[in-house]
Amino acid sequence: KKIKKIFSNAYEIRSFVDLLREKLPIMLFVMIPVLSFLFYIFFYGKNHLYIDHLVHVLHFQSFMFLLLTVDLLLDWVFNIKLLLLIIPVILGYGYLTSKRFYEKKNWGTLWRLGGIGFFYLVISGFSFLGYMLLLVKLY
Predict the structure, then answer these.
(1) How many angstroms separate the CA atoms of 39 and 61, rounded?
(2) Is the pTM for the entire model greater than 0.90?
(3) Taken in order 124, 97, 59, 36, is the CA torsion positive or negative?
(4) Backbone dihedral region of 49: left (phi > 0), alpha (psi from -120 to 50 degrees) or beta?
């Protein structure tokens, strides 16, 4: 019934999408420990504790959100869209910080980040689906 209500007209669809956007930062915040755990698994060893991985992930996500905020501001004020340029910068920065922090070789860092990215995408997908179902129930 609630799904039919959400998709009943354009206003309801827009309201639900706005609700998703409003609550998305909460989901991203909740996923930080999951991403940290993936880093803990893939970069195991070298005397790094889980908290070290958590700090590394917080540092990286702060940089990512800073760049995305700059992109939103530039788009809003000057109508300049830089997202296609920002994504490679974010990925490159993630690679460089991980390589430097974990002191791994180029390919060792790349395959680990690829594995982390894959598993994070799968876990995030299921989490987002659960998040959407919860919002449908609460809508």
Answers:
(1) 13
(2) no
(3) positive
(4) beta
CB atoms within 10 A of CB 137: 8
pLDDT tens digits along 57-94: 999 999 998 998 999 899 899 998 888 999 999 999 99
In total, the chain counts a number of residues equal to 139
* Confidence band, pLDDT 50/70/90 cuts, at residue 138: confident
How far, CA to CA in Å, does 43 sit from each of 49, 58, 119? 10, 16, 14
What whole-number distance in Å separates Cα of residue 7 and Cα of residue 13?
6
Other Cβ atoms less than 10 A from the Cβ of 112: the count is 20
Distances (CA, A) of 98 to 34, 80, 83: 17, 30, 22
Instruction: Give Cα 58 to chain centroid, integer Å.
Output: 11
Mean pLDDT of the chain: 90
